[in-house]
Amino acid sequence: MNPTVVDNAAASLSPQVLKGQLIKRNALEHDYVPFFGSSEWSRFDPFHPSVLAAKYKRSYRPFLLGARGSQSLTHFFVMQSVNPQLKNKKAVVFVSPQWFTPKGEDPNAFSFYYSTLQTTNWIKQQNGSKMDRYAAYRLLQMPSGNSDKVIAGALARIAAGLKPTTSQMLYVNLRNRILLNEDQIFSRYRIPLNNEETIDKNEELLPAQYNYQKLDQLAGKIGAEKNVFK
């Protein structure tokens, strides 16, 4: 894959990148580290992980996964799509307080980031573990999980501790192949304008050389300027 496509995708915060597979897998097979989170990734300032990594030429580049409204259930299925690339690797998870609510993830937000490609990938590789059964149960509580009757039937069997039927798996495999082909064809063309210019501007505000004390002072100054409670 063209490295420019991956570079653009890394900080694009694009829902299409989050829901796809090809670009994420390609990035994580190289020098990118997945950063799972939500709306905080859109707040670009000098201390954003993408800015710091670019400024100080770190040995990795953050691959931002998540945006406003993406929570733990969304990220569970995102992770399933890159399981081979995550094995024995490092990842960063930025946990937001709003993830911990009695009713769990908002169904509308989940639907926005829902990916049938990721669901079919997961169904193919799940093994009926307690985690898999609970994931199927939670997905069935979302409108997205019931949007395809055959997939919903497979999820119901997984939630009950049963394997999907042969006909269900034939359908899941077919849908997965079709969606993978679509991802390979269209994913590189769906990336919006990236945030490289914003990253470059914020780099200019940082000290030329990494210095913890100077960075701490700068963070305090920026924080004081943005303090809305003054």
TrEMBL record:
InterPro entries per record: DltD, LTA_DltD
Entry superkingdom: Bacteria
Name listed for the protein in its UniProt record: D-alanyl transfer protein
Pfam families: DltD
